[in-house]
Specification:
With about 130 residues, this protein is α+β, with helices and mostly antiparallel strands. It is built from two helices and eight strands.
Length: about 130
């Protein structure tokens, strides 16, 4: 017995459908990006540069190959600075400074100008205690 012959037109049509479907799935999966909770995102476009829109939490659309998301962590994490020094009466004093970064409205400027924290406000709290 001989194997059944498949027409070459059917093979060519099937190949076109598979390649087209694969490109469609690839484009659909690469056109979405997620911004997790506690993060913010901006989009770099190869043609116009950095867009000024700041993306909040959620799923957003972009154009594959022309746009690339840049995700920033904007959760408030206190930075603890400790210092220990001696007073006039020879007692050791421990000073603790807690710095909390507040605000995320200038992220696109931080990325495009490459300046350390422009326009970002800092909330300072100091606590000193003796031993």
């Amino acid at each position: 017995m001989s194997a059944p012959r498949i027409p070459t037109q059917a093979i060519g049509g099937l190949a076109r459908v598979l390649i087209g479907g694969g490109l469609a799935v690839y484009g659909a999966t690469n056109s979405l990006f997620n911004v997790e909770g506690g993060h913010r995102g901006i989009v770099f476009n190869r043609l116009v540069g950095i867009k000024e829109e700041v993306y909040a939490e959620g799923t957003h659309l972009m154009v594959p190959w022309f746009e690339r998301p840049v995700i920033f962590d904007v959760r408030a994490r206190p930075s603890l600075i400790q210092s220990q020094s001696g007073s006039r009466d020879l007692q050791m004093v421990s000073c603790v400074l807690i710095v909390v970064k507040v605000g995320s409205s200038c992220m696109y400027r931080i990325q495009s100008v490459s300046v350390q924290d422009p326009g970002v406000q800092f909330c300072l709290a100091a606590k000193a205690h003796g031993r």
